[in-house]
Amino acid sequence: MGSIRVVFVLVPKLHLLDLAGPAQVFSTAETLGYGYELTYVAEADEVMTAQGVPLKTQPEWPELGPDDLIVVPGWRSPRLLPVPPIGPETRQRLRDHHAAGGSVASVCSGADALGAAGLLDGRRYTTHHDLTEMMAARYPRATIVRDVLYVVDDRVITSAGIASGIDLALHLVAGARGAEAAARVAREMVVYARRNGDELQESAMLRHRGHLSDLAHRVQDVIDARYADRLLLSDLADQVCVSERTLTRMFTTATGLTPLRYQQLLRLERAEHLIGHGSTIEAAARAVGFEDARMLRRLRSRT
């Protein structure tokens, strides 16, 4: 089994986790004997990360073959820069590697570098949810896929923000070395065993937490921890020392949902994850707290 070379292209203000997550996956795979070799290149001898940690880089690009991979981690970019921080030579290397049969990947805003190299044109891709509209406008010949973890299209692999780079890397290990290898790496790293690419970037636990109601947050804490249990509205109201009517009114004002609907969303997301990993609808329904699969089927049909 020959080694797969993974080249990380480092740019100024890159996010450490965009780099460290995938690098940890591939280096753990190497430690476990799956044959990976990591290289870090840049257009400067040293790159400063967004978190203030300077990184030394290697001056020369290695020779790459069709089995090798180039990864562009993302950089700090609440908005896209006028021009992605990679020069013409790096763009050409990305194009040449892909044209020779190799794979290229990005994390978060790293997709902007692939777009600048022309590798998104005619392909599907994703990026961090904060950048989707700007990327869609910048690369109209590409098709952006919103709110998923990663997208694979003709050896161009793009992932969402920050931690999703781990999911992308585990997916690539599974494709190159098998699902057992990816599972061993995930277990060694103590991370969620490989999430599917079409899972949501933001869970309901995050989407409905952007309010300032302490009462609603406390109720959400209870539901988050016990979403598979039968939770009575009266018990939730007792937890926060208000009436059922007051609880429903304040919770709905803060989150846009009733407590029951919020619990159903959590159950539905967890069930979709289980189904995506091979569970039957019936087994998933039982695992998340439904008495049978009928309610789960109704909720899935609505969404």
Q: Would you mind describing this structure in some detail?
A:
Residues 217-303 form the HTH araC/xylS-type domain. InterPro entries: Class_I_gatase-like (IPR029062), DJ-1/PfpI (IPR002818), Homeodomain-like_sf (IPR009057), HTH_AraC (IPR018060), INH-QAR (IPR052158). This is Helix-turn-helix domain-containing protein. One of its GO terms (molecular function) is sequence-specific DNA binding. The chain is of the alpha/beta class and 303 residues long. The protein has helices spanning 16-31, 88-99, 110-116, 132-138, 164-177, 179-189, 204-207, 214-225, 233-240, 244-255, 259-276, 281-287, 293-302, and strands at residues 4-10, 36-42, 46-48, 54-56, 69-72, 103-107, 124-125, 143-144, 150-153, 156-159. The chain contains 13 helices and 10 strands. The strands form 3 sheets. It has a 6-stranded mixed beta sheet, with helices on both faces. Strands 3-4 form a two-stranded antiparallel ribbon. The longest helix is centred in the last third of the chain and has 18 residues, at 259-276. The chain is elongated and about 65 Å long.
Topology (SSEs and partners):
Layout: E1 4-10, H1 16-31, E2 36-42, E3 46-48, E4 54-56, E5 69-72, H2 88-99, E6 103-107, H3 110-116, E7 124-125, H4 132-138, E8 143-144, E9 150-153, E10 156-159, H5 164-177, H6 179-189, H7 204-207, H8 214-225, H9 233-240, H10 244-255, H11 259-276, H12 281-287, H13 293-302
Parallel strand pairs: 1-2, 1-5, 5-6, 6-10, 7-8
Antiparallel strand pairs: 3-4, 9-10
